[in-house]
Design a protein that fits this description.
Distance between the termini of chain A: 129 Å
Distance between the termini of chain B: 112 Å
Largest interface: A-B, 91 and 87 residues
Radius of gyration of chain B: 47 Å
Order of helices and strands of chain B: HHHEEHEE
Oligomer: heterodimer
Largest sheet of chain A: 4 strands, antiparallel
Shape of chain B: rod-shaped
Number of helices of chain A: 4
Strand content of chain B: 15-25%
Helix content of chain B: 40-55%
Number of strands of chain B: 4
Order of helices and strands of chain A: HHEEHHEE
Largest sheet of chain B: 4 strands, antiparallel
Structural class of chain A: alpha+beta
Strand order of the largest sheet of chain B: 1-2-4-3
Structural class of chain B: alpha+beta
Strand content of chain A: 15-25%
Number of helices of chain B: 4
Chain lengths: 229, 211
C-alpha cells in the first residue's frame, strides 16, 4: 500500500513539473512575441524619422539657397524699381513743364499800359539751379555741381515809359498789366513795376507834356510751380 | 497522509514562484522596449514631422517672396521700357567734347530761319557761330545729365521770341533755358543783343539706373 502511494506521488510530481514548465515556457514565448512586436514598432518609427529628417534637410537646403538668392535680389530689385520710378517722374516733369521762357517773352510783348508808350532796355531772366548737393562725377572732370532741374527763376527788366497822364493812373495800369501776365506769374511770380519818378526826363522841359520815366520790373525768385517730385 | 499533502503543497509553491518570476521577467522585456526605445523614438518622429511642417510653411512663404521679387523685377523692366520711350526725344550727348552736335546743328538752322545774327564782337572770330557749346556738362540731383549750349545773337525781339518758342517746343529734343540777358540796341535801333544759356537734356543710361 505504501509503495503504491509512493508511485502515485511521483506521478503527481512529474505532472506538476510538466505544468510548471509549460506555463513558464508559454509566458516566455508570449513575452518574446510582444518584444518582437514592440521592436517592429520601433523600427517603423526609426524609418519614418529618417524619412522626415531627409525631407527636412532637403527642404531646408532649398530654403536656405532661395533665401540667400532673394536676400541679394530683393534689395537690388527694389532699389532699381524705385530709382526708375524717380527717373520716370523726373522725365515726365521735364517734358510737361515746358516751355519755360517763351511765355515770359510773350507776356513782355503782349501786355502794355493802355495810355502810355513803353520800351524795355534790358530783360534778364535767370534760373538758380545750384544745389547744396554733392558734386557730380564724370570722367571728363567737367561736370558741374549737382543741380536741381527746376531751380528758382527770377526776372529783372528795365526800360522807359512815356507817361502822358498822371503817375497814379500809370501805376494803376502797370498793376493791371502785371496781373494779366499769366505766363510770367506761373514761371517767375507776379512782376512788380517800380517807377523812378525822380529820374524822369522831360523833353523840352515842359512838365505838362509827356515825360519819359525809367522803370524796373522785377519778379521775385520763386520756386517753379510744379517742382519735379 | 499529512506529510504527503505538505510535501505536495511545497512543490506547488516553488512552481508558482517560478511562474510568477517568469511572468515578471517576461513582461519586463516588452515593457522596457516600449518605454525605453519606442516612446522616445516616437516623440522624436513627431518632433521631426512638426519641424518638417514648419519648414514647408517657411518654404511656401519663401516662394511667395520669390514671386514678389519677380514682380519687382518685372516692374523694373517695364519702367525701364517706359523711360526709354519717354526719353527718345532726349539728345545723345558727346561727353568727350561736352557738346550735343545734332541739337546744336538744329538750333543753328533755327537761328538762321529766324534771322539771328552773330554779335559784332564775335564776328571777327574764326568759326564763330550763334550757337556754341558752353563747355559744361551738368549733373542734376536725380540723375539727369545735360550739356550746356550758349546762344549769343543780335536780332529783333520778335524774331528772337519766335526762336525761343520754337526751341522750347521742339519735338525731337528737350532744351531748357537757364538764363537770358537781352540788352536793347543802344542806338535806338531794332536789333538787340541776346545772350542765352540753355541745357540740352540727354538720354540716361537706363540699364545703369539704380544698380
Amino acid at each position: 500500500m505504501f509503495e503504491l502511494n509512493l508511485i502515485k506521488d511521483k506521478a503527481k510530481a512529474r505532472q506538476r513539473r510538466r505544468v510548471i514548465f509549460l506555463a513558464v515556457v508559454s509566458i516566455l514565448f508570449l513575452a518574446g512575441l510582444l518584444s518582437i512586436f514592440v521592436g517592429s514598432l520601433f523600427w517603423r518609427e526609426t524609418t519614418l524619422l529618417d524619412t522626415a529628417n531627409k525631407e527636412i534637410a532637403d527642404v531646408d537646403g532649398r530654403l536656405k539657397a532661395m533665401k540667400a538668392d532673394l536676400d541679394i535680389r530683393e534689395p537690388a530689385a527694389r532699389k532699381r524699381r524705385n530709382a526708375l520710378i524717380s527717373a520716370w517722374h523726373e522725365d515726365v516733369a521735364v517734358r510737361q513743364d515746358r516751355p519755360y521762357f517763351s511765355p515770359i517773352i510773350r507776356d513782355i510783348v503782349n501786355y502794355h499800359p493802355a495810355t502810355a508808350r513803353f520800351w524795355y532796355n534790358s530783360v534778364s531772366i535767370t534760373t538758380n539751379t545750384e544745389s547744396a548737393g554733392p558734386r557730380g562725377t564724370g570722367a571728363e572732370g567737367a561736370v558741374a555741381m549737382s543741380k536741381t532741374l527746376m531751380g528758382t527763376r527770377g526776372l529783372e527788366a528795365s526800360g522807359y515809359i512815356q507817361i502822358e497822364g498822371s503817375d497814379i493812373l500809370t501805376e494803376s495800369e502797370l498793376r493791371t498789366v502785371a496781373r494779366q501776365m499769366d505766363g510770367m506769374r506761373k514761371l517767375v511770380g507776379e512782376p512788380k513795376f517800380t517807377l523812378d519818378i525822380a529820374s524822369e526826363v522831360q523833353p523840352g522841359g515842359d512838365s505838362e507834356a509827356s515825360r519819359y520815366v525809367p522803370f524796373t520790373m522785377r519778379a521775385a525768385q520763386t520756386q517753379f510751380s510744379r517742382e519735379a517730385p | 497522509m499529512a506529510k504527503g499533502a505538505g510535501s505536495s503543497g511545497g512543490d506547488w509553491t516553488a512552481g508558482i514562484v517560478a511562474i510568477v518570476a517568469a511572468l515578471l521577467l517576461g513582461s519586463a522585456l516588452p515593457i522596457g522596449l516600449y518605454f525605453g526605445l519606442f516612446k522616445p523614438k516616437e516623440q522624436e518622429r513627431i518632433d521631426a514631422q512638426q519641424k518638417l511642417e514648419q519648414v514647408k510653411v517657411d518654404y511656401q512663404m519663401m516662394l511667395a517672396r520669390a514671386d514678389r521679387v519677380r514682380g519687382l523685377e518685372e516692374d523694373g523692366v517695364k519702367m525701364a521700357d517706359d523711360i526709354k520711350e519717354l526719353e527718345s526725344p532726349f539728345a545723345v550727348g558727346d561727353p568727350e567734347k561736352l557738346d550735343v552736335p545734332e541739337v546744336r546743328a538744329t538750333l543753328l538752322r533755327l537761328a538762321e530761319n529766324h534771322k539771328l545774327e552773330l554779335r559784332p564782337e564775335r564776328q571777327a572770330r574764326l568759326g564763330a557761330e550763334v550757337v556754341f557749346a558752353g563747355g559744361e556738362r551738368i549733373a542734376f540731383e536725380k540723375g539727369l545729365q545735360a550739356t550746356k549750349l550758349q546762344i549769343e545773337a543780335r536780332a529783333r525781339f520778335h524774331d528772337f521770341g519766335r526762336f525761343i518758342t520754337e526751341m522750347e517746343t521742339l519735338e525731337n529734343y528737350v532744351i531748357i533755358p537757364e538764363s537770358l540777358v537781352c540788352t536793347g540796341d543802344a542806338n535806338g535801333g531794332n536789333d538787340h543783343t541776346f545772350i542765352m544759356v540753355v541745357y540740352v537734356i540727354e538720354r540716361r543710361d537706363v540699364d545703369a539706373i539704380g544698380r
